[in-house]
């Protein structure tokens, strides 16, 4: 995009210059600051630590979010599977913690279960705990490794695009057209287990994904971030982007759906657009049903 030499162009040029200077240490993530952090490996998963952490964290989560988890029996107890979830609640995504705790309790802490997450999540204050529960960097090689070793893998295809969607789109599945999870499941011939969550978009008031701001500051290229969210949250009011906030105690409901066998339903050479629309459609049906049950925001 080219801007003129007028006041608007000068203002945008100034904003970009300031952002480059202010975020200099962060804007070199692949050769500077971020690579110094460990992205998480399969070996970081620690069943002993999970058993110690799980009761206390589950108590805190239960008090604050009053979670209701349905359909855990749809997750296979044997063999690999791909759990595909809609993403909610911004940086702190309550369904991540709740589902990790619920699945670890259901399958047992020894059962190999891993989750893919953006590098920023693995550099967050919660990273130490997430690593122990099996969170690793979202990378195709990691995904292939987990499934090839017969483990259960959890992914959130919508990523930062979906997790920062406006609050009034709380009852919408929005992966942004990303179909990589379908190819992954088909390649490894593993079932897709839908995980559908409602309530996370009520933990703050999400106003905008801020895609225009991400492009303006060029972090879409430098940090692989397509959004700089604009939101109202405690204790800030207008919350600084990607800063932890105090979530409102919204009731979180998670429902697991019937496993989907892509090869059985779509054959060896699927029409990915058709498969995408149908899989997302099934998840949307569950989410719409959960929304219909909801009486009041936050209260549930």
Automatic annotation (TrEMBL):
All residue ranges annotated as the Phospholipid/glycerol acyltransferase domain in the record: 81-200
The keyword Transferase is assigned to this record: yes
InterPro entries tied to this protein: Plipid/glycerol_acylTrfase
Pfam short name (any one): Acyltransferase
Residues in the signal sequence: none
PANTHER family recorded: MONOACYLGLYCEROL_DIACYLGLYCEROL O-ACYLTRANSFERASE (PTHR22753:SF14), TRANSMEMBRANE PROTEIN 68 (PTHR22753)
Name this polypeptide is given: Glycerol acyltransferase
């Amino acid at each position: 995009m080219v801007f003129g030499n007028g006041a608007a162009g000068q203002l945008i040029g100034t904003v970009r210059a300031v952002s480059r200077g202010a975020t200099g240490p962060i804007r070199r993530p692949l050769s500077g600051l971020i690579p110094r952090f460990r992205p998480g490996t399969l070996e970081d998963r620690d069943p002993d630590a999970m058993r110690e952490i799980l009761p206390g964290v589950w108590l805190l989560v239960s008090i604050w979010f009053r979670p209701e988890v349905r359909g855990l029996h749809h997750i296979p107890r044997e063999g690999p599977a791909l759990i595909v979830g809609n993403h909610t609640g911004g940086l702190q995504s309550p369904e991540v913690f709740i589902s990790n705790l619920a699945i670890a309790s259901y399958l047992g802490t020894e059962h190999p279960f891993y989750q893919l997450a953006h590098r920023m999540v693995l550099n967050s204050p919660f990273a130490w705990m997430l690593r122990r529960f099996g969170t690793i960097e979202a990378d195709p090689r990691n995904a292939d490794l987990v499934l090839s070793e017969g483990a259960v893998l959890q992914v959130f295809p919508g990523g930062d695009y979906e997790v920062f969607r406006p609050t009034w789109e709380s009852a919408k599945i929005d992966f942004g057209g990303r179909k990589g999870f379908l190819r992954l499941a088909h390649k490894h011939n593993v079932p897709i287990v839908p995980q559908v969550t409602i309530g996370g978009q009520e933990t703050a008031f999400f106003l905008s994904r801020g895609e225009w701001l991400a492009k303006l500051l060029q972090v879409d290229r430098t940090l692989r971030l397509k959004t700089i969210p604009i939101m109202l949250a405690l204790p800030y009011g207008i919350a600084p982007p990607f800063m932890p906030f105090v979530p409102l105690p919204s009731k979180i409901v998670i429902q697991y759906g019937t496993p989907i066998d892509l090869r059985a339903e779509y054959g060896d050479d699927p029409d990915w657009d058709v498969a995408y629309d149908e899989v997302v459609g099934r998840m949307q049906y569950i989410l719409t049903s959960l929304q219909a049950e909801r009486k009041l925001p936050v209260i549930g």
